[in-house]
Amino acid sequence: MAKKFLSGNEAFAYGVRLARPQVISAYPITPQTIVVEKLSEFVEDGSLNAEFIHVESEHSALSCAIGASSVGARAFTATSSQGLLYMAECLPYAAGGRFPIVMMNANRSTALPWNIYGDQRDSISQLDSGWIQAYAGNAQEALDLALMSFYIAEHSEVSTPFMANLDGFVLTHTYEIVDVPTQEQADAFLPGYETENKLDLQNPRNLAFSAGPDTNTFFKYKEHLGILNASEIIDKAEERFAEIFGRRYSGLTESYQTEDAEYILITLGSISGLVREAVDKLRAEGKRVGLLRLRYLRPFPNEEIANAVKNANALAVLEKDISFGNEGTAYTNVNSALQKAGIELPTSNYIGGLGGKNR
Amino acid sequence: MTEILWHGRGGQGAFTAARLLGDAYSLKDNAYALAFPSFGPERRGAPIRAFTKLDTKPIGNRSETTRSNYSIFLDDTLFSEKSFRELKQNGIILLNTKKHFDDPRVITLDGDGIAARILGLPITNTILLGAFAAVSGEISLEEINEAIRQTMPRRLQEKNIAAVKAAYEEVVA
Lengths: 359, 173
Hints:
heterodimer, A: alpha/beta, Rossmann fold, 2 domains, 7-stranded mixed sheet, 5-stranded mixed sheet, 12 helices, B: alpha/beta, Pyruvate-ferredoxin Oxidoreductase, domain 3, 25% strand, globular
C-alpha cells in the first residue's frame, strides 16, 4: 500500500483502476469530471488496459455500458446531477437486464435554479430504479467502495448495477490521505467478471426481451431478490476486504456511540464526519447522543436501523434532499423501518445542505 | 487542529500550495490533513481562498475555515484590517509584500522579490509555503521538497525547491 494525498474523485479513480474495468464510457460533468479525466490518463499512460469511450451524452454513456456488460465485459461509468437525470431512462434498463455496471455519481443539486454544488437530490430521485445505492463518507471509503462495488454487483446472487455516491465538492474535490492498495492485493480480492448473462455465440440466449403481464411480475420479483441478496454479499465482500486490506467496514450502516444513546442522529454521506465531531463534543458535556450513518440506501438497512435505535428516546434524520410535497426520503424510509419493527419513537426530519449550503 | 487559510488570485497557485502542504504533512506518521479550494467556478485574477487543515487525528469537519491559525496572503491587495477577524487567538498573518507592518501578528516577506530572482515568474505559492514552514514549525523543508517531487512537473521541481529554501532562510533570518 502507498499513502497518497488524493481528492475523492482521484481516490475513486484509483479504486476503479485497481478493479480493471474493460470498458469505461463517460461524459464529463462538474463535479464528476476529474474521475473520468484521471481514468482517461490511466488508459493513455498504459496503466489501465480498458476501452475508454468518450460518448456524446450521459444517455449514451450508460447505454454503452449496458452494451459492454451484455457481452460480459466489466463496465464503468460516472456522472452527476443533470447527467444522471439525462441517463435516467437507461437506469431501470440496466437493473432489469441484470447488468452489474458500476457508476460513480458525484452528488449535486438539480436544476432549476441552476446550481453546481452538492446535495443528494439527484441520486435519491433514482432510488426506485433498481440500482444498489451506496454513500461514501470519505476518500478512503470512496476508493474501497470502488473496488468492493464490482465484487458486490457482479456476484451471481446479486447481478445488480451499483451506484456509488460521493458528495459533490466536499468529498469529490477535497484532498485527504488515502492508502492506495497494490494491484496484487486488488487482484486477490476481485476476480475477473464471469457471467452466463451475456451474448455468447457458443451459448446463444435471448437478452433484453419483452415480458408481458403473465411473466413480468416474476422478473421484477427476481430483480427485487437480487438487490435484497446484496445485503449478505456486502457483508461477505467486506469480510474478504478486511482480510486482504486490513480495513473493516460495517455493512449497510455505521454506528457511532449508539449503544447507550438517548438521542440518535441518522444521516448519510460525508457530513457524518462533522456529526461525529458533534457527538464527541456533546458526549464530553455528558449528553448521551449517537450517530447512525446510512452507508447504503438500497438495499435499505431496515433491521440495522431498528437494532441501533430500539433503546433510544428519540431520533432525527438529517439529509440533503426533499421529496417535494412530503418530506425527506431517507426520513420516510427510516420511519418505515421503525414501523415494521414495532418501534414507537418520536422522530423528526432536518433537511439541510441543499445546493451546497454549508452553514 | 491547525487551520491554514490561503488567499490568492485565480492563477497564483493558492490551492496548489494548500494541497502541497497537506501532501507534505501526510508524509509524517499519525498525521491527518484535508485540503480544498473555495468551491465553484474559477476565474483568473479573481480572489480565491483555499484551506488546509492539519491534525494528529482524523478530521471530520469538512467545512470552510472561518477562523484560522495562519492566514497566508499571496497578494497583499487582498489583505485588510478585516483579515484579523478571521484569525483565531494568537493567529498569525503571513503576507507577501514589500511594505512594513508594525504589528506582531503580521509577518511579511518579499515573496515577489524571491520569485523574480529564482523562478523568473511572479508566482509565490511555494515561496509562501517555505515561509510557513519557518514560521510554524509544522512542516520541514525536506517534507515540502518531497511533496514537490511527488506532485509537480519535473521541470518546475528544482527551481521551486530553491525558492522554498530561500523563503525559509529569509524568514528565519
